Amino acid sequence: MATETLLATTGQIFLRLLELHGIDAERFVREGGYDPALFRDPAARLPTRAVDQASRAAAERIADPAFALRAARCWHPSNLGALGHAWLASSTLRTALRRLERFNRILTDKATFRLEESARGLRLVFDHRRADIALAAPGVDFAFSILIDMCRMNYGAALRPLEVTLGRAKPADAGPWEHFFGCRVQFGAARHSFLLSRRDADEPLPVANRQLAAALDAILTRQLAHLDRSNVAARCKAVVLERLASGESPEGEVARVLHMSRRTLQRKLAEEDLTYQQLVDDTRRDLALRYLEDPGKSLTEITFLLGFSGQSAFTRAFRRWTGKSPSAYRPIARTLAS
Known about the structure:
Blueprint: E1 5-7, H1 11-20, H2 25-31, E2 45-47, H3 48-61, H4 82-88, H5 93-107, E3 112-117, E4 121-127, H6 133-155, E5 163-165, H7 175-181, E6 185-186, E7 192-197, H8 198-202, H9 210-227, H10 232-243, H11 251-257, H12 262-271, H13 276-292, H14 299-305, H15 311-322, H16 326-333
Parallel strand pairs: 5-6
Antiparallel strand pairs: 1-2, 3-4, 4-7, 5-7
Helix pairs in contact: 3-6, 4-5, 4-9, 5-9, 9-10
């Protein structure tokens, strides 16, 4: 069974949190058997079990049960790698949270984030995948405090979730949680989540940079493909993205880049209910929707970037995807999440 891991640079947030609580972070790390330099390596990963041990040790040494909420004061976008910078460039909080959901595997292959739509708004559900609720509680506080602060950095400090649900038992003093989140907190819940109103989730953000976000998405897609070598669809999409502007790459050529036969590629994609043409189509469609949000990109440039032979071919494909021409869809695209 493969070792579950966490992006090492996220550990810098934990080290700053320890320092906030008066603990010698460097000594703490060395006592755990790790070199502090590891946390500055953007390519390094930490075993999740070691992170859990460190969390347990910190909770034993810090008297405050809400200590992990102060992680909101300790994070920096670079701690999350390219995903942190893509988050800041997102056009809406919905877009940012979708990026987190899509690329979470880069941060950790243990916990997962999932978005749910409801009549009330957009809910983010966090599954820490740990049987020990007491062990998970500080980790959930740690993750949610950072995420809410990330949302507030993009949206503004006034952002308040409609509600927060936490699995931990209700503490004697719920004040720290209610003060931080600024809303009702339900303790002892069946799952960990927070709910944003639709208006807040879809409010255009002043920090949005769609061109930068698209470039970072391409980087994240390649990182995801490299990280999960068993995910043939992700690896295939990464190759397609790299070669798209030069025209659609033949299936056999992409298979050779992935060091497999064309038939093997077809079989592995079929296991994920995909064909090569569907994957290329999906990749082009997603990029087209994102590019159309950028007023600085002409339809001619978008046609080239997507690898179409001409604008008429792009228009036909786009009508098949959306039922509209690119020029008719463009005003709509600018109001939607990328």
